[in-house]
Structure formats: C-alpha cells, structure tokens
Amino acid sequence: MPVSGGDTRDTRSVGRQDSSDWLQLMIARDADVADALAVLAEHGRTKRIRNGARNNLRRHRNDQPSRTFRPRPG
C-alpha cells in the first residue's frame, strides 16, 4: 500500500529501467563497436543516449583510415 503522497510506481521496474538507461549511456559514451553505436544512435531509450551514441559513432568513423585514401608517392 502506497504511503500518502508517495510514489505508486513499481520500484522493481523503475530500477530496471534506470539500469538499462545507465548501461545504454555507458555503451554510447565508451563503446568502440560501430554496430552497437549505430543501434543506440537510432533506438536508444533517451535523447541523451541517442545523441551520445551518434557523437561517438562519428568519432569512431573519423578515426578509421579511409579505404579510398592513397598517399601521393614521393
């Protein structure tokens, strides 16, 4: 029974949602796996997660050597 004026949400589902958000945010911020970042950039739970993944994906792609780049001889 909820306490008067208290939160009536199921705390177990709130805890799982918070930990899922935290995990997605950590992956979006620190991961180097382009496939995981692409998924989070499109389908992350929050705007912060999607933006973080998108930024990290951009950094990841910029760090990769270009396949079409060929240095000039000499």
Low-confidence stretches: none
Class inferred from helices and paired strands: mainly alpha
User: N-to-C terminal Cα separation, in Å?
Assistant: 79 Å
H/I helix tally: 3
Form type? elongated
Instruction: Round the Cα radius of gyration to an integer and report it.
Output: 20 Å
Task: State the major sheet.
Answer: none
Order of helices and strands: HHH
Helicity, as a percent range:
55-70%
Determine the strand fraction and express it as a percent band: under 5%
Q: How many beta-strand elements? A: 0
**Rounded average pLDDT:** 76
Write a brief structural summary:
The protein is mostly helical. It contains 3 helices and no strands.
How would the blueprint of this fold be written?
Blueprint: H1 11-30, H2 34-43, H3 47-63
Question: Please, could you describe this protein's structure?
Answer:
With 74 residues, this protein is an all-alpha fold. The chain has a domain at 15-63. The protein is 64% helix and 0% strand. The protein contains 3 helices and no strands. It has helices at 11-30, 34-43, 47-63. The longest helix has 20 residues, at 11-30. It is elongated. The N and C termini lie far apart (79 Å). The mean pLDDT is 76.
Please give a handful of descriptors for the protein shown.
74 residues; mainly alpha
